[in-house]
């Protein structure tokens, strides 16, 4: 018997997606640990790299992070001089978060390491299969984002 898991579970996309996510997360977390970072730290750095400076609440919303948890991640990244916070010029009551030069440099390295970790994690799939998998998963995530209250 090639399969160790119950066929009933192996027929459920939600079970498979959850288990595959744990495998991928393990690979990525290992790569980040060498820098003393966790996945939420990388999410913050990647978000700022991709979107540019953002109001703290907008960053939390785009990353799907609890706003109070984000504060702790930002505190750690700021202590390490990877991000900076300043008053948002559009609304002085809010904080705007930016990447520092050190943050930009490290984020570039982390993106490369993340890509390598995904190559290890998805090594069983061809390049075309990976593209298909990413496309299908992205469709599900985007549809869920659109269905959320306030999306639009």
From TrEMBL:
Alphabetical list of SMART domains matching this protein: HTH_MARR
Residue spans of biased composition, Basic and acidic residues class: 84-93
Query: MF terms per GO, please?
Result: DNA binding; DNA-binding transcription factor activity
Recorded hits in Pfam families, A to Z, give: MarR
The answer, when asked if DNA-binding is one of the entry's keywords, is yes
HTH marR-type domain sequence ranges? 1-142
Q: Where is this region: Disordered?
A: 84-110
Q: Which UniProt keywords apply?
A: DNA-binding
GO BP: response to stress
PANTHER family named in the record: HTH-TYPE TRANSCRIPTIONAL REPRESSOR YETL, TRANSCRIPTIONAL REGULATOR, MARR FAMILY
Could you identify this protein by its name? DNA-binding transcriptional regulator, MarR family
Q: Which organism is it from?
A: Amycolatopsis rubida
